[in-house]
Amino acid sequence: MSDVVAERIIVALDVGSKEEVETALNRLPSVKFVKVGMELFFSTGPDLVRSLKDRGLKVFVDLKVHDIPNTAAGAMRSLSRLGCDLLNLHCSGGLEMMQRAQEAVSEPTKLIGVTQLTSTNQTILNEQLGIPGTVEASVLNYAKLAKQAGLAGVVCSPLEVTALKEACGPDFLAITPGVRPQGSASQDQKRTMTPAEAIRAGSDYLVIGRPIMANSDPNGAFLKILEEIEVEA
Ligand code: C5P
Q1: In the chain, which end has fewer C-beta atoms inside a 10 angstrom radius, N or C?
Q2: Which of 64, 110, 190, 224 does the annotation list as catalytic?
Q3: Helix, strand, coil in percent for the chain, rounding step 5
Q4: Is 64 among the catalytic positions?
Q5: Domain count for the chain
Q6: Is 49 buried (19+), middle (13-18) or exposed (0-12) by CB count in 10 A?
Q7: Average pLDDT per 10 consecutive residues for the chain, totaling 233 residues
Q8: CATH code of the domain in which 95 resides
Q9: Ligand 1 pocket by C-beta < 6 Å: which residues?
Q10: pTM of the predicted structure, to 2 decimals
């Protein structure tokens, strides 16, 4: 198994305590890259991120920051100092906010934009947020703005990756949740692709939670996904 391919699967540690993280990681010896979301970060704090880095893991801190440029930049600076590999913020904060945030991060952190949440559909976009046009057009608009600001890439649905790479180029990173191995339940994810399909479409990193974390053999589930994508990668 190559580490390079293993690092393309980011396992979402969607649990609420450091004890649960410990249990999960002990059952996932092959995992190289993990995601810490709001639930876990807000209950355990920055120390957990430091301890994950000390274990030799890569870490995506998924806090989807959205604030005025000065505050967003300060948040990114603090998080970047923890040594996070990926951090994100909402593109809807605008160009200056993203530029200032980008200036505030340092190696090894890569900054990623959140375009439209996958829970935002056409009706919500047009009628509640007041943004005309299609969801895909809005995602591409935000992605181009993120690229202009110097960000490394965006989070998007695997179904948007082809259009994203056409609009922003092959080196602009696509981080995709909404991935479901063949035969596993889609749960609340609506528009899914299998890991191999997502890699074939051009995804750089797959974010996968429950199909690994809720499996009775999480490491086996992880290795099976790896085997599937190694053929494509
Ligand atoms: O369990 P599952 O594979 O659906 O987990 C996907 C992870 O990716 C979750 O942590 C979820 O919050 C996150 N995510 C997502 N859709 C987005 C952004 C993040 O599913 N648009």
Answers
A1: N
A2: 64
A3: 45, 15, 35
A4: yes
A5: 1
A6: buried
A7: 88 97 98 97 97 98 98 98 98 98 97 93 95 95 98 95 97 95 81 91 97 97 94 67
A8: 3.20.20.70
A9: 12, 14, 37, 117-118, 155, 177-178, 187, 189, 207-211
A10: 0.95
